[in-house]
């Protein structure tokens, strides 16, 4: 070792040469074997799903917010604090046509939709909580409306506050092509105890991957028929999603207040 430092010009050059020859030989060996490491590298690099270009961004999220016409003027500031007109996608679902004081509709609010009339379904299922049925039904209404390039459906109330960039970063860590249901545990241990730790508590926002939302869309009416006695939206959704064999993926960043 010591001699090589003093005798740099000869020993080091020889070592360098020997080393680079080794590299060349290794490369030659690999390039002669089309099915080995080299092809694997190319294969991964060309798979667009792994490129940062294709990572989740704000356009892949669709928000479904459920509110009431009567309360909207009090709730609007919560939503407008984070909503980005023409950037964030989604709708506010109202129970009835906006009253004159809400018109013209603010361009800084999400566009509104009137929730589907579920009276027939309610009559048939005798569901105990019509308002909750409306909230869960919003999942399939927003799915019906926005599908192009959607990876995640984010369901919230008319007073939910989302930190959009943070949400995008967090969601990009999950595989949106799988059945994923993300929710927050309740801050109340008792609630978790009663309703199971498998529940995403709705006050905190519930997030469904595209394939899961599609499955909910196909089956939710049957869930209402099976569980007419469930009296909260998050509980209905949890039970239904659990029936498909999907458990909640708890996320510590979702909070009910
Ligand atoms: C690319 O990656 C995805 C996973 O994100 C995988 O499902 C797919 O099969 C891959 N495609 C190719 C051509 O390897
Ligand atoms: C981006 O990923 C999706 C799957 O999430 C895939 O269907 C699509 O082809 C990819 N886009 C590009 C440009 O590769
Ligand atoms: C989000 O990514 C998609 C490709 O997956 C791209 O078409 C779209 O323009 C991007 N949107 C933003 C706001 O970057
Ligand atoms: C959103 O886009 C529409 C049409 O492209 C435009 O008229 C409107 O001013 C935009 N809204 C905001 C808040 O930029």
UniProtKB/TrEMBL annotation:
InterPro entries: DUF604. GO terms for molecular function: acetylglucosaminyltransferase activity. The chain crosses the membrane at residues 12-30. Pfam families: DUF604. Keywords: Membrane, Transmembrane, Transmembrane helix. This is Uncharacterized protein. It comes from Lactuca sativa. The lineage of its organism: Eukaryota, Viridiplantae, Streptophyta, Embryophyta, Tracheophyta.
């Amino acid at each position: 070792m010591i001699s090589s430092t003093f005798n740099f010009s000869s020993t080091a050059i020889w070592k360098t040469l020997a080393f680079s020859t080794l590299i060349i030989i290794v490369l030659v060996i690999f390039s002669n074997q089309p099915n080995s490491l080299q092809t694997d590298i190319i294969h991964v690099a060309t798979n667009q799903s792994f490129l940062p270009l294709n990572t989740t961004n704000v356009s892949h999220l669709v928000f479904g917010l459920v509110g009431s016409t009567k309360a909207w003027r009090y709730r609007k500031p919560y939503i407008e604090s984070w909503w980005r007109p023409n950037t964030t996608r989604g709708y506010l679902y109202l129970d009835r046509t906006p009253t004159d004081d809400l018109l013209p509709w603010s361009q800084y609010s999400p566009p509104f939709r009137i929730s589907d009339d579920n009276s027939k379904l309610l009559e048939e299922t005798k569901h105990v909580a019509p308002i909750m049925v409306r909230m869960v039904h919003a999942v399939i209404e927003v799915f019906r409306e926005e599908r192009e390039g959607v990876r995640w459906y984010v369901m919230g109330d008319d007073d939910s506050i989302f930190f959009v960039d943070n949400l995008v970063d967090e969601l990009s860590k999950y595989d949106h092509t799988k059945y994923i249901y993300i929710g927050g545990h309740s801050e109340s241990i008792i609630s978790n105890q009663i309703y199971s730790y498998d529940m995403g508590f709705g006050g905190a926002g519930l997030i469904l991957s595209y394939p899961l939302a599609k499955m909910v869309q196909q089956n939710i009416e049957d869930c209402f028929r099976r569980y007419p006695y469930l009296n909260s939206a998050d509980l209905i959704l949890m039970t239904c999603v659990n029936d498909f064999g999907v458990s909640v993926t708890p996320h510590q960043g979702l909070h009910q207040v």
